[in-house]
Write a structure and sequence with these properties.
Length: 299
């Protein structure tokens, strides 16, 4: 799916011609609506003289936080040369090209000192969008200086100022390590905090966030490692923990199977190499194995 998305993102539009058409040609206005109106007129003129698809000229424009600048992003799909910083200069707007990065699509932007920082989605035209942040420095145009991409599917959020840093929170989901699930069934909750300071993207890492599937996956991991103390912490009673230890003492990690799942309320998994089903439910603020059921083959 990602390869198909990359092919769809390719565009034959000569964006250098478009940049010449709008650079120093749109009057400086105080509101975004007026800018859009003038830009629409430029787009109509460009389409008359160039063979382009409507999707290529669809656009999004939004204010760059901590500045009086706009970020203009052209086209449904990312392609080289179609993203610009729009800067007021005298009575007209100047446009400065922002270098593209892979299949990244920006949704939020902030200016920190002389650095531009964008938050959005990598693999943006696929069905597996990953939160990402890209920082830029300005030479003749805006060039990439740093990139961080989360390993999980999800979304990035607007930047928040915290002291001398700008922070972007991202959340999403990924597949469990020990429970085979289809793409649509990946419900291990994930989060990441991207932090930028004066143009530098500080080191950050993906982290799991408490979730039902994630907790069940951690339980299986503890049985595989024979960490019975940790296994006990996932059980509602000592009796349940003892039975789970007996059932899994010789089991493997790749034979657990989901029997049923009810969002964040309950999950039933068949214990590897047995005819028993472990039932995990919410207990207080977390999830624990509360009972066992005999496995029944589906009719």
């Amino acid at each position: 799916m990602m390869i198909l998305g990359a092919l769809l993102a390719c565009s034959d539009v000569d964006w250098s011609k478009f940049e010449l058409l709008i650079d120093d040609a749109i009057p400086v206005t105080k509101d975004l609506a007026s800018f859009r109106k003038n830009l629409n007129g430029r787009i109509v003129e460009f389409k008359k003289e160039n063979k382009v698809e409507d999707g290529d000229l669809a656009y999004d424009v939004f204010r760059i936080q901590n500045s009086n600048l706009y970020l203009l992003r052209m086209g449904w799909f990312p392609s080289s040369g179609c993203m610009y910083v729009v800067r007021p200069s005298g009575s007209k707007f100047k446009v400065e090209e922002v270098a593209g990065f892979s299949d990244f699509k920006a949704y939020y932007a902030v200016m920190d000192h002389d650095h531009l920082v964008l938050a959005g989605s990598e693999y943006s035209v696929s069905n597996a969008k990953h939160p990402a942040v890209v920082s830029y420095r300005h030479w003749s145009n805006w060039v990439v200086s740093g990139v961080q991409v989360a390993e999980f599917e999800g979304t990035a959020n607007p930047f928040v100022k915290k002291g001398s840093t700008w922070t972007c929170y991202a959340n999403g989901r990924t597949c469990p390590k020990h429970i085979p699930v289809p793409h649509s069934g990946a419900h291990v909750s994930m989060q990441r905090t991207f932090v930028e300071q004066k143009g530098e993207l500080l080191t950050s890492h993906d982290q799991s966030f408490p979730s039902l599937m994630g907790t069940f996956d951690n339980l299986i991991e503890s049985t595989v490692r024979k960490n019975w103390t940790r296994t006990k912490s996932f059980c509602a009673s000592d009796q349940i923990a003892s039975k789970l230890q007996r059932l899994t003492v010789n089991s493997t990690a790749d034979e657990w199977r989901i029997v049923s799942e009810d969002a964040e309320k309950q999950m039933k998994c068949r214990v590897a190499d047995t005819d028993w089903v472990a039932v995990m439910e919410r207990v207080g603020k977390t999830w624990k194995v509360t009972r066992f059921e005999h496995y029944k083959e589906p009719k």
